[in-house]
Amino acid sequence: MNQPFTKQEKIRFKHVDYAGIVFYPRFLEMLNDLVEDWFEEALNRPFSKIHETNGIPTVDLKVQFKKAARLGEILTKKLWVIHLGGASVTCGFRFEDEQGKTCLEGEVTLVNVAIAEDRNTIKSEAFTDDMKTKISSFII
Fold it and tell me: Which residues of 106-117 are buried (b: 16+ CB within 10 A; e: fewer)?
């Protein structure tokens, strides 16, 4: 059975608000970091290379905030594939605290796009067969 892509992240001062809990936009930045790490580490397609000619924008995002995460805690961030289309991928994600309790969960849909040389035109572009194979290994 396939496994999710997993990373850990320590909650730092930069992540929290005055109450000492993660300020909700920081969770979305952590999600984007997870996606970026997945592309680089698991799919061998680092953003530094993607963005020379392509992009992978988020086109849909569903988030549920389940539990506060606090300064100093370590979160385990998990990402897996729910659906793989021709040029899009929908991923599930969950952030868990050190006791395994869910702090954040949801779905994110990303679309592979080609960016014209003049940077003015963006158009969806199908994933290559090789990329589809790599992404498929995370379907759960």
Answer: bebbbbbbebee
